[in-house]
UniProtKB/TrEMBL annotation:
Annotated keywords: ATP-binding, Lipid biosynthesis, Lipid metabolism, Lyase, Nucleotide-binding, Peroxisome, Steroid biosynthesis, Steroid metabolism, Sterol biosynthesis, Sterol metabolism
A GO molecular function held by the record: diphosphomevalonate decarboxylase activity
Coiled-coil residue spans: none
Principal subcellular localization: other
Protein name: Diphosphomevalonate decarboxylase
Cited NCBIfam families: mevDPdecarb
Domain Mvd1 C-terminal: 203-360
Length: 360
């Protein structure tokens, strides 16, 4: 280590969030965060929903500390500690001649890190904030500590922060393979196709409510595992087939099949929540009205124009087959949920801001 203890080494990373089209809901191992089924997601454009994390290391830091959206949070929870421990174990020598910094592999055990993370979207409102957060933290720490692991290997560490985080280490469509190993070494994310493969798709998020959800994903899925028979049937009998069909639909850019599978899987995930004792309600009346709007429109068109999916909250993630469908969708949303009315939405998050202009 450099003799002078005033140096600071800083790394900043940005990671987008991801939205599952085949949902992860249920763990077979709570500590290692191992899921009961495979899942598939689409990673969003980093310019819209993303986390930016800056990590720093200095001999003058006397403990690990972290700030989330400007507020210090406790690192005592096992999830942060697990991620830090796993990356520290893979840390390598760092030499920055310009700054006169040399950190040997063994020095990392004694050094403390500070991390500051910002979400540019509502935290814990069912918009997968923990996914982007842990993926970004793990990625930034890996760069800081010069860990040589691949993104798939890092995904198995991010998974121990929050399951869905493992899928944010890649762009495009990503599969989280549940794996078989008891130590979780093969429970990691792989990229199915990159973001250029199907770039006609336009994602619009209708923010029905930006309030924090009442039941966290972690406790909700724990209760579902304990009480829902449907969850176990889904994991064993339904998801394995759906995963194969979804991979096929993505490979062929088959929107008809993609939207049918996406909507069906979202509805089944919420059915599992209802099948949980006591039942969990993530969607609200506005979410249900959005589903009806899309279902009626798709039926009237003969070919589906839009797929919908809802995570652990009331906000709708709407995937339009192309720009034209996205513009029509926005017009419909603005017509049925007029701004400043009782039925208005909190906001839209768009893949492309110019769509609002097109939609008038
Ligand atoms: C509904 O990844 O937030 O978004 O692993 O306990 O942190 P933990 O849960 P989390 O759950 C996400 C659930 C979901 C579906 C999905 O993203 O696949």
């Amino acid at each position: 280590m450099a003799a002078d203890s005033s140096w600071v080494r800083i790394v900043t990373a940005q990671t987008p969030t991801n939205i599952a089209v085949i949902k992860y809901w249920g763990k077979r191992d709570e500590t290692l965060i191992l899921p009961v089924n495979d899942s598939i997601s689409i990673t969003l454009d980093p310019s819209h929903l993303c986390t930016t994390t800056t990590v720093a290391v200095s001999p003058s830091f006397d403990q690990d500390r972290m700030w989330l959206n400007g507020k210090e949070i406790s690192l005592s929870g096992g999830r942060y500690q697990n991620c830090l421990r796993e990356i520290r174990a893979r840390a390598c020598e760092v030499e920055d001649k310009e700054k006169g910094i040399k950190i040997a592999k063994k020095d990392w055990e004694k050094l403390h890190v500070h991390a500051a993370s910002y979400n540019n979207f509502p935290t814990a409102a069912g918009l997968a904030s923990s996914a982007a957060g842990f993926a970004c933290l793990v990625f930034a720490l890996a760069k800081l500590m010069n860990a040589k692991e691949s993104n798939s290997e890092l995904s198995a560490i991010a998974r121990q922060g929050s399951g869905s985080a493992c899928r944010s280490l890649f762009g495009g469509f990503v599969k989280w393979v549940m794996g078989k190993a008891e130590n979780g070494s093969d429970s990691l994310a792989v990229q199915l196709v990159d973001d250029k493969h199907w770039d006609d798709l336009v994602i619009i998020i209708a923010v029905v409510s930006s309030r924090q959800k009442e039941t966290s994903s972690t406790s909700g899925m724990r209760e579902s595992v304990e009480t829902s028979l449907l969850l176990h049937h889904r994991a064993k009998e339904i998801v394995p087939k759906r995963i194969m069909q979804m991979e096929e639909a993505i490979k062929d850019r088959n929107f008809e099949s993609f939207s049918q599978l996406t909507c069906a899987d979202s509805n089944q995930f919420h059915a599992v929540c209802l099948d949980t004792c006591p039942p969990i309600f993530y969607m609200n009346d506005t979410s249900h009205r959005i589903i009806s709007l899309v279902e009626k429109w798709n039926r009237a068109e003969g070919t589906p124009q839009v797929a919908y999916t809802f995570d652990a909250g009331p906000n709708a993630v709407l995937i339009a087959r192309n720009r034209k469908a996205a513009t029509q969708l926005l017009k419909k949303l603005l017509f049925y949920f007029p701004p400043n009315s009782d039925a208005d939405l909190d906001s839209f998050v768009l893949g492309d801001k110019s769509l609002i202009k097109d939609a008038g």
